[in-house]
Design brief:
Blueprint lengths: L1 H9 L4 H6 L1 H11 L14 E4 L5 H11 L39 H14 L6 E6 L6 H12 L5 E7 L2 E2 L2 E2 H5 L4 H7 L3 E6 L3 H11 L7 E6 L22 H19 L1
Parallel strand pairs: 1-2, 2-3, 3-7, 6-7
Antiparallel strand pairs: 4-5
Helix pairs in contact: 1-4, 3-4, 3-9, 5-6
Length: about 260
């Protein structure tokens, strides 16, 4: 709900890809990562890099609900003077490990973090989220090659495979498929999952922690705009904010889903 809250009050932002990754954001911040909102700069914490930085509304919602800052502040998304801007800023936003926004760079940063942890003999893990449209960027593949070369088994790259980007279907704009075979060829342990199944998400991250001598890639098949009926599988919601009527409908649907889970 934080994604809708933020983008509605900002009158801008990227709800589609934030919602497609929402279940994985939730699992990472509430179950998987070794983190502490009361000590966000702990040098031994796990790291997360949102390479597809425009989906910051999803990251902010996870951070707020995890206790890094007040949930109420999500309404200040993209406002002048707010620390919650359109892309993550590690200098102003509690819990953000890397400033991102220019697509294609986050995986490189995450790989560097993972290698640095190896050099310092730190027992921490580094996670990074990239989009299936973002992996059209050449720097992504340089970073993947780097990660495999240095045997970064403390690195987990998660590909949000919703098959939609701002210009339409990824497969039609510039197909990266078969993503799994390409990542295997680059030396990765590859796990393919339903990115909305918590059982599959959990199994994938548990398996990733057992992999030795090479990095892991989790290819998560997801639905852009997941959870909001009129946003699902619609490229037009890549970077469009809901209006008042759409906001009410979306919040009603998400609240109903939350109630069914809690019930």
């Amino acid at each position: 709900m934080g994604v809708i809250e933020g983008t509605y009050h900002a009158k801008s932002g990227h709800p589609g890809g934030s919602l497609s990754f929402a279940d994985i954001f939730t699992y990472l911040y509430f179950k998987e990562m070794n983190i502490d909102p009361k000590d966000p700069k702990n040098p031994d914490r796990d790291r997360f890099v949102l390479s597809k930085g425009h989906t910051a509304p999803g990251l902010y919602a996870a951070l707020a609900n995890r206790g890094y800052f007040p949930v109420e502040d999500l309404k200040t998304l993209r406002h002048i003077g707010s620390y919650l801007q359109g892309h993550p800023n590690m200098n102003t936003t509690p819990g953000v490990d890397m400033s991102t926004g220019s697509l294609g760079q986050g995986v490189s940063v995450a790989a560097g973090m993972a290698l640095g942890a190896k050099y310092e003999n730190k027992n921490l893990r580094v996670y990074t989220a990239t989009g299936d449209g973002e992996i059209q960027e050449g720097q992504i593949w340089e970073a993947l090659m780097f990660a495999a070369h240095y045997k970064l088994d403390n690195l987990c790259v998660i590909v949000d495979n919703n098959n939609l980007q701002i210009d339409g279907e990824v497969s039609k704009v510039m197909s990266p498929y078969p993503i799994d075979e390409k990542l295997k060829a680059f030396g990765f342990e590859v796990i393919c999952i339903d990115g909305h199944s918590f059982d599959e998400i959990e199994a994938a991250f548990e398996k990733a922690k057992t992999v030795k001598g090479r990095p892991t890639a989790i290819i998560a098949k997801t639905v852009k705009g997941k959870g909001v009926s009129f946003m699902e599988n619609q490229a037009s919601w890549h970077g469009t904010a809901p209006n008042g009527e759409q906001y009410e409908t979306a919040m009603s649907e998400l609240k109903a889903q939350l109630a069914s889970l809690e019930g």
